[in-house]
Write a structure and sequence with these properties.
The complex is a heterodimer of chains A (117) and B (111). Chain A is built from no helices and eleven strands. Chain A is mainly β and 117 residues long. By secondary structure, chain B is mostly beta strands. Chain B contains no helices and nine strands. In chain B, the strands form two sheets. A five-stranded mixed beta sheet of chain B has the order 1-9-8-3-4, with no helix packed on it. In chain B, strands 2-7-6-5 form a four-stranded antiparallel beta sheet, with no helix packed on it. The chains are: A mainly beta (117), B mainly beta (111). The interface between A and B is medium-sized, with 28 and 25 residues.
Chain lengths: 117, 111
């Protein structure tokens, strides 16, 4: 079945630095990918929709200058957390759907645990 | 997206069927019912989805009421590895449409 891979699975960085998280669709091309974040014991919160070849669409309250999304190819979307602070520590998860199948399920990566010290 | 309502938690004995309910009384005609689960510290895993008819796959069965206002996910023989948060989500049939997660149901399978 369709596989979505995220890298890294875990990252620790110092406050003020930037961190890039990669999301790849391994066996299909995805014109749209979705980025979520999840705080401990909370549900997933959609951050943005990543569109190949165009700007991402951000959900209300998500800072687009802080969470930079690039979807440069049909199999890769990246999320960069710029000038990270401890409150950005969270579990970041990406997802994608096989195109041309409107009701096909979203496939999720295994997430990236970001810890900002 | 239509809102869903799920019980916050359920317990199930190992080997027994786990029946997880979901209410979606405002579901629209073109919205599918999706079920996902999330095991601790992993990304969500797709389980099953349906529109009107009952569905079954190797993981579970999905029973949707005739009026489509509620559904039940059935894990026929729950194991300890089925302990997870289960999310019921309704979503229109469109490639670009996002999934919005609610709080889900914490299912605890006990030996």
């Amino acid at each position: 079945g369709a596989v979505v891979s995220q890298h890294p699975s875990r990252v620790i960085c110092k406050s003020g630095t930037s961190v890039k998280i990669e999301c790849r669709s391994l066996d299909f091309q995805a014109t749209t990918m979705f980025w979520y974040r999840q705080f401990p014991k909370k549900s997933l919160m959609l951050m943005a929709t990543s569109n190949e070849g165009s700007k991402a669409t951000y959900e209300q309250g998500v800072e687009k200058d802080k969470f930079l999304i690039n979807h440069a190819s049909l199999t890769l979307s990246t999320l960069t957390v710029t000038s990270a602070h401890p409150e950005d520590s969270s579990f970041y998860i990406c997802s994608a759907r096989v195109p041309l199948q409107g009701n096909s399920p979203l496939h999720f990566g295994n997430g990236t645990r970001l810890t900002v010290t | 997206d239509a809102k869903t309502t799920q019980p916050p938690s359920m317990d199930c004995a190992e080997g027994r069927a786990a029946n997880l309910p979901c209410n979606h009384s405002t579901i629209s005609g073109n919205e599918y019912v999706y079920w996902y689960r999330q095991i601790h510290s992993q990304g969500p895993q797709y389980i099953i989805h349906g529109l009107k008819n009952n569905e079954t796959n190797e993981m579970a069965s999905l029973i949707i009421t005739e009026d489509r206002k509620s559904s039940t996910l059935i894990l026929p023989h729950a194991t300890l590895r089925d302990t997870a948060v289960y999310y019921c989500i309704v979503r229109p049939d469109s490639y670009g449409n996002k999934l919005v997660f609610g709080a889900g149901t914490i299912l605890r399978v006990k030996s």
